[in-house]
Amino acid sequence: MSEPRIETDQDATRPLRDDIRFLGGVLGDTIRDHEGPEVFDLIERVRIEAFRVRREEVERSAVAEMLDGVDIAVALPLIRAFTYFVLLANLAEDIQRDRRRAVHEAAGEPPQDSSLAATYRKLDAAALDGAEVAELLADALVSPVITAHPTETRRRTVFDVQTRITELMRLRQRYAETERERTDFELEIRRQVLTLWRTALIRLQRLRIQDEIAVGLRYYEITLFDVIPAINAEVRAALRSRWPGVELLPRPILRPGSWIGGDRDGNPYVTAEVVGTAAHQASSVAFGRYLRELVELEKSLSQSARLVPVTPEVAALAATGYPDPATHADEPYRRALHRIRLRLAATARQALGTVPGESGEGPRTRSTQDAAQSSGSRPAAVAAAGSAAASSTSPGMVSGDAAVVAQPYPTPQAVLDDLDAIDASMRASGDGLLADDRLAALRHAIETFGFHLQGLDMRQNSEVHEQVVAELLAWAGVHPDYASLSEAQRVDLLATELRTRRPLLGPHARLSELATKELGIVRAAREVVQTFGTEAVPNYIISMCTSVSDMLEAALLLKEGGLLDPGEPDGPPSCSVGIVPLFETIEDLGAGAATLAAALDVPVYRELVSAKGMRQEVMLGYSDSNKDGGYLAANWALYRAELDLVEVARKTGIRLRLFHGRGGTVGRGGGRSYDAILAQPAGAVQGSLRLTEQGEVIAAKYAESGAAHRNLESLIAGTLESTLLDVEGLGPDAEPSYELMDDLAARARAAYSRLVHETPGFVQYFRQSTPVAEVGDLNIGSRPASRKPTNSVYDLRAIPWVMSWSQARVMLPGWYGTGSALEEWIDGDPDRLATLADLYRRWPFFRTVLSNLAQVLAKSDLDIAARYAELVDDIALREQIFGMIRDEHARTIRMHAAITGNNQLLADNPSLAESIHNRFPYLEPLNQMQVELLRRLRAGDDSELVKRGILLTMNGLATALRNSG
Questions:
Q1: What residues are annotated to the active site?
Q2: What SS3 class is residue 655?
Q3: pLDDT in tens, 936-960
Q4: What is the pLDDT of residues 85-100, one digit of tens each?
Q5: What is the pTM of this model?
Q6: What is each CA distance from 784 to 191, 787, 810, in whole angstroms?
Q7: Which of 7, 70, 342, 831 has the fewest CB atoms found within 10 Å of its own CB?
């Protein structure tokens, strides 16, 4: 018997290298055929030279010299070529990740951490009490929230073509067994790559909010509508099977949200009309999908009453299914489903004014997705069968339906009641196998998404609330100068107004444009709630919240807009919308717990919280705290804030839910979500959390069903483990460790401030050594780059701040100040170094901080950054600031190695190390070309082609870095 073959690292990565080589070859052929041999030869020489740079065979200047003075007409296809090289490499890596996971599973290896299978094993080993589990998961919620300012730079067309290439590559791997089949696949892939090459990468106009709404909703049509309900059903079944005597997860745990169309903080383009549009389009996606699924069910559930008995409930539904009793007379399920479809269409018409799909358009069903994957790949009969299933009847009225009176459903639960009746009838007759397919998927979807699809959060800055409330109070004659009042006086006045039933405004009130707009938006939210239910607008978030009055001002606006009911004279107030303070700066994070405790001491506010089951959500801002105090100080301020908030929750009896405002980059709270959840302090998760999903990571996580499933289950896995298991690992060493981190954070913030806030000329250096001025022209989002028209770092939005440092390969927000803090604290003492090494091994928070820092440092490149520094006019300023950056960079790498014991930054993340190795030679020409074109632009060459070239390099670098903003 031969020995079992041991797979080497070389074996494991060979398919990835083959895929990258194949796709690169197809792209190269396309470029040669359509741009000519001269352009192709230059691209190929630059590519070869970039790989030689990676192998340290030549100096970095070699590529720069090749590109120096290159004609812009040649530069543009060169930039596009390396952007597409990176995009195709990303695609190949995603396929390789799935391939490796399948190999691990086939080998019978233990499930990997962050998977639900691994979490279930841990829960089984812990032997938890069912009643305790039920208490901890009583209000379970995991809610990824897509935000309104993504740095996703790909156009929809590019996105769609890339998705098609991914599908073809997977099918090629699975089905191409003969030379003919391989040739057919390659031909179709070549067509798609040619389409990609002929498609413009960047938009000519800035995205409108309406475009952003559509971009966010596309992920439901592609993956989320199938994946989220399936995960909800799986988790509920798995937990109930472990604790069968307990009714766990009465509601789906995974319920998504959105800010797109409701977040108006610094975005003047969000209006009352936009709020309505966002809610209606989301609902239209849900109704359209339900109606199409009902069509498919009506076609497939053909059981005959002559063969299968049905329950009285189904018989009653079937009796009113068609106007003609002879239609499907002996097929009760078809008749019952038709009745449900008519009622649901009537519900959609009542809510939306139309029925999605009556024109023949609508979200793709499972059948159309299957057909898309089948076309051109599987045998023709299979593809034809998929296409036939996709050509379903329009989900609106069919012939003869006009004679049927269809009453709209009052709630999603009423739809579920009818579908549940069909499910129960099928199971009673032994057809559970059929009920577990499409019918079960539809029931789970309606339970998860309702009529609203996703919760639309509202958000506005506290300064705006103050201005509007002051104007309302003055107009109503309550107080002429609200701004002059002390905090205590404001709280007393606002609390009194919240209990007063009379509105502040009459129908003829004359208000400023700002106040009119703000009230219009809140009233539009009320209409959304009235139409689609309370879950359609679940939260109102107060940016830059610093006081109790900030929270009560938002409450007063909700009251004036009709969302907060002051109650009867002797009754408590209530509000369907949760009031959520957002603590963002390091100072506000430090004071956040005290602010919340003080708000809960105000009787009227506590009554509002009580009316919501004592549930209070608090949002924590990662971006501004980082920009304010640097990476380590911000991360510790967030942890400390959570500790303090958990203690307030314990003392006041509230159920605390934290909403994490994380961005795509480490500098904005990014990193692996599972690790981030486990790094929370004890008691901070409590069965529920929400977190924002932003930037390129949205597409990376949710554009493909396998990736979406993995990322969503990792969120639930982390939530379950943090809630039900002891994951902090500090025990009695907690307080000394916290004090140590207090010291480190103070030192890190001081080092960061010395550079960013105290060094004269720093803003000038930042603006000249990065493409921050050009970021605003990338057309990546609808909102302005700054909150205010100012040159201050404080007012610059986090996305351009982080993205600019990323483009210049400094990555400063993700590490600066940490090395100084660690070196100063250790001060050459081996015992102190051993203490930090022990914390790295035992404490998930500290381990995650250093792991994320290593990811950022691995993506940085100070040799490239030095080229950007040369753009700074003031030589002395350039040398001073870049010298500080270079020294801190080296110091931080040195400290990381000393504490972790790893000389390789990514020793704990080999897949990312491999990714960087594969893609970074393609970054070299993009960075060098960007510096060259920035120099031309700033020297006076402001031609459209030069500007377009800069934007193309930014697009390419963002694609390569995958989490640049």
A1: 149, 627
A2: strand
A3: 999 999 899 999 999 899 988 988 8
A4: 999 998 898 888 888 8
A5: 0.89
A6: 38, 7, 24
A7: 831
